[in-house]
Amino acid sequence: MRIRPLNIVYILFIVAGLTFVSCSRRDNTIRRTRLMFDTVVTITIYAETGNDLSPVFEAVWEELRAWETALDAYDTTAGLYRINSGDTITIEDKKIADALEIGLEYIQPTDSAFDIRVGGIVRLWDFTGEGHLPSENELIAVLQNARYPVELVDVTLIKSRNTALDPGGLGKGIAADAVAEILDTIEYIERYIIDLGGNIVANDRSGKPFVIGVRDPKSPDDVIASFTLQSGYSCATAGDYQRFFERDGVRYHHIIDPKTGRPSRKVSSVTVIAKEAVVADIISTALFVMGYEKGVLFLESSPEIRAVFFDTNGKYLGGNLEIEIIK
Ligand code: AMP
Ligand code: MG
User: Fold this and answer.
1) Residues within a 6 A CB radius of ligand 1
2) Closest ligand to 38 CA?
């Protein structure tokens, strides 16, 4: 089992304007990093001097910890585990209800390419442990379980057959949006970059854009391309190198095609820009599963979303996100 904590997309360059701002004596830049959500979380805040950012960071970590705990499908003492261990249930934790609501909302529009009912399938593959290569019979059982209807009516989750829900494909995005909401209320913050394992929200009070690097899927320590992220927007990448195990030289990665119950092998990485980080998180996984041809059709009907695809050899395929290829 290999986890690559340093994720896919990260801040590559800072634009000239930002360099100027961060060098100005008026300003105060603090970057803090923690391991959360099984990945590297980095928060960078640029604020007017004379303001103590410690309470701000405390509030940010507290918010992230709350999301991490709420959405942990494996913690046997946590709410999601209980929800996944039974059928119809009232959800008391608002964070869980919000995450499941938005997750369920995207099953139909993505034709199940993004489908949080994959909980049982993901657990079977044991990506967070040693990794398990399931037999055909094991897969058939969990696939059936992942197809039963699940509905959230107010805070009542209606489901049957113990269908296990896995919000792992949207947890970092929804948490990044929640942190942005906190930082947006603080007047003396001039600019911030929230990076939850490559789920990024970046904002600048004066509207300066950001330049973001895309990791090379075949050599994830290298940058393959860059693009401009407008202030107030989010981006995320789904890549086959982020979490995987290998058996007999074959890589089994964590993005599952819910139709087959197996790792999707149409592309190696998809990077998405959307207004909200949770949407970028969800759609990056959805487009990864759809692959390029179906993904491009999806983008035609979603003009507010930009995406770029890299094929299984790590080569640029295309998309409606303008990028600069670096190598
Ligand atoms: P991310 O961490 O954002 O790359 O999302 C991947 C995680 O989402 C996996 O670890 C699974 O927990 C979950 N997942 C995998 N495949 C799917 C899928 N097709 N739809 C929804 N969630 C998925
Ligand atoms: Mg994601």
Assistant:
1) 114-116, 118, 122, 166, 168-169, 172, 238, 242, 254-256, 258, 281, 285, 289
2) 1
Strand (E) positions, 156-286?
156-158, 189-196, 199-204, 210-216, 219-229, 233-239, 243-247, 250-253, 256-257, 262-263, 269-274
d(CA 75, CA 217): 31
CA pair distance 175, 65, nearest whole angstrom = 9
Ligand nearest to the CA of 39: 1
Report pLDDT digits (tens) over 221-279.
899 999 999 999 999 999 999 899 999 999 999 999 999 999 999 999 999 999 999 99
d(CA 305, CA 274): 5
- Point out the ligand 1 atom lying closest to the alpha carbon of residue 173: 3
**Numbers of helices and strands, H then E, in the chain:** 8, 20
Helix (H, G, I), strand (E, B) or coil at 170: coil
User: What letters, b where the CB count within 10 A reaches 16 and e where it falls short, cover 40-55?
Assistant: bbbbbbbbeeeeebee
The H-or-E segment that residue 45 falls in is strand 39-48
Q: Write down the pTM of the prediction.
A: 0.92
